[in-house]
Design goal:
Layout lengths: L2 H6 L35 E7 L2 H9 L1 H7 L4 E8 L2 H10 L8 E2 H9 L4 E10 L4 E5 L14 E4 L4 H12 L8 E4 L2 H9 L5 E4 L3 H8 L2 E6 H4 L7 E6 H6 L1 H20 L1 H12 L3 H9 L3 E5 L4 H16 L17
Parallel strand pairs: 1-2, 6-7, 6-8
Antiparallel strand pairs: 3-10, 4-10, 4-11, 5-8, 5-9
Organism: Faunimonas pinastri
Keywords: Signal, Transport
Function: Part of a binding-protein-dependent transport system for aliphatic sulfonates. Putative binding protein.
């Protein structure tokens, strides 16, 4: 396995992860800025899609394809991908033009490893729903009770950063806890069978596990962490963006329309996600009840870039990322 492959395969989502497509019941906050038309050297765009999120809703509804067809752009869907790593690998390998909307943390790890990817756009969902969960019968009352315990996390991803942040906030060192590096498909049964004492995970995997294994939160990102470390990002190759900036802009704008629809139709969007994820009505209703809101950010939004740089530095200072990254070097403005 190459260094790049290793970096790109660090995160593997639980089947059905990131399925909370109907996460926004509030109005969609669109980013600032309109950009002039640029270059275009193809009439077809290959979009990665996975088991949830905006690409899943877009693919199921077919409206994004109609929107882009109006600009003489044909859409080909590539996937499904279980998580961000193989989605990015498809872009690097030339079988897709865009990944799906995935975590910035493994994307940064891939960039450090030498990937030619760039960020074209970002989104943030509030309230953030990544959480550390324990079984109700575990006897663990809070984060401080994790001392000496085994906690499942995904390496260099949301799970690891949230556990590190939770330990810091509660006065514990990471050496006080045993980090058990498991990809979500392995972490779920390990948690269910009691092979680990806690699990740090994102929606909807954490919501499914909470429901299935009679578990509860001891640290909920949206309430317990007052800063953002990980964002959701849309990536492509730098060369593709330079040769097709007009097309990149069209794809971003089409996703904005899709995001607005998700916010305006949370119940229907959640039913789309539930159908694919095959989780319970209770999980679907819980996700809808979060009343989450999607906000998009452009790469020229300097306030956002400062927050993204802070997040990247925070990760590298805690060795979740192996070295610092100047995020501005990997932003493409269309």
């Amino acid at each position: 396995m190459t260094k790049l492959d290793h970096a790109l395969t660090r995160r593997h989502l639980l089947q059905g992860a990131a399925l909370s497509a109907g996460i926004a019941a509030a109005g969609l906050a669109l980013p600032r800025g309109a950009f002039a038309a640029g270059t275009r050297n193809t009439g077809t765009v290959r979009l990665g899609w996975g088991q949830g999120g905006l690409p899943l809703v877009a693919r199921e509804r077919g409206e994004l394809e109609k929107t882009l067809a109006g600009k003489d752009i044909k859409v080909e869907w590539v996937g499904p991908f279980p998580n961000h790593a193989p989605s990015m690998r498809a872009v690097v390998g030339g079988s897709a033009d865009f990944g799906f909307w995935g975590s910035t943390t493994p994307a940064l790890a891939a960039l450090i490893a030498g990937s030619p990817l760039v960020f074209t756009n970002f989104l943030l969902t509030n309230p953030r729903s990544t959480a550390i969960i324990v079984k109700n019968a575990s006897g663990i009352a809070g984060v401080r009770d994790l001392k000496g315990k085994r906690v499942a996390v995904n390496r260099s991803g949301l799970g690891e950063f949230l556990l590190v942040a939770a330990l810091e906030k509660n006065g514990l060192d990471r050496k006080d806890v045993e980090f058990v590096y498991l990809n979500p498909p392995d972490a779920a049964p390990a948690f269910g069978q009691g092979k680990v004492d806690a699990w740090s995970m994102w929606s909807p995997g954490v919501d499914i596990a909470r429901d299935r294994f009679d578990a509860r939160d001891i640290f909920f990102e949206g309430n317990d962490l007052d800063f953002v470390i990980d964002f959701t990002s849309l990536v492509t190759l730098r060369g593709f963006a330079e040769k097709n900036s007009e097309l990149v802009r069209a794809v971003i704008d089409a996703y904005y329309e899709e995001g607005r629809w998700v916010n305006d139709h949370p119940g229907e969007a959640n039913r789309i996600a539930q159908k694919v994820g095959q989780y319970s009505d209770a999980v679907r209703d819980h996700l809808t009840g979060l009343q989450q809101k999607i906000t998009f950010y452009e790469p020229d939004d300097q306030d956002f870039v400062k927050k993204f740089q802070f997040a990247s530095d925070w990760l590298s200072e805690r060795k979740i990322l192996p070295q610092k990254v100047n995020v501005s070097d990997y932003l493409v403005k269309t």
